[in-house]
Amino acid sequence: MATQQTQVLGRALLTPAVALLFIWMIVPLVMTIYFSTLHYSLLDPGSESFVGLENYRYFLTDPAFLTSLRNTLVLVGSVLAITILLGTPLALLIDQPVIGRSVVRLMVIAPFFVMPTVSALVWKNLLMHPVSGLFAWGATLIGATPIDWFTDAPLLTALQSQDEEQKEAAEMDGANAFSTFLYLTLPHLARPITVVILIETIFLLSVFAEIFVTTGGGPGLQTTNIAFLIYSQALIQFDVGNASAGGLVAVVIANSVAFFLVRIIGRNLEA
User: Fold this and answer.
1) Average pLDDT estimate for 240-249
2) Quick check: is 37 in a domain?
3) The domain containing residue 92 runs over which residues?
4) pTM score
């Protein structure tokens, strides 16, 4: 056990980093709260005036907010569904002892080292481009019309920690692969899946770069999420007050979702 002196020393060493991180977070938050109560347009500097909660009322009643909120929920829900429904079988497949498993695992991890902007541009220009994209080339090979798409690993780690003796015992008792997955593997993956949902949800609520470099939020508002709507309010319409109010609304939504998911994770850990 650490002595009182080592505890004091540890806190003293951590204090500068914690203080710097606190300042790094609290200063932008305070400025955002302040700007959200002002009529503040970059096109008319020097004419700022206090409007109270008017920016919040305008942002929440703006039809664009409801559209972007719906798009955000669709994005989060669809990506989570694809991640869990396809990621779990893929993790099971990679966990099998096959030739070249190390290479396949490396290929699965490799996309994490690609910048989101680069990945989005690859999908936009090399894969989904309606003229020169790979999908368009494949469609022309079979005589189909190319589609203009823009106008029209935690689980594996958990699998490796599963008790092999339980699986062997299930096989000796005559359990088939489906029963083993349903009654052993899936309950074992409950906690990792919940953690994946938490991390992915927080990440997807703030997706911006991919939308910016591919669709630009369009056509219209069809691919605009809350993060891109805040950007357009601030740097396209130059309405800093309204964008600040939108930013705080997004913070409340993200923290509410995170709080709900953390409680679920806590219950899983206690189970």
Assistant:
1) 94
2) no
3) 63-270
4) 0.74
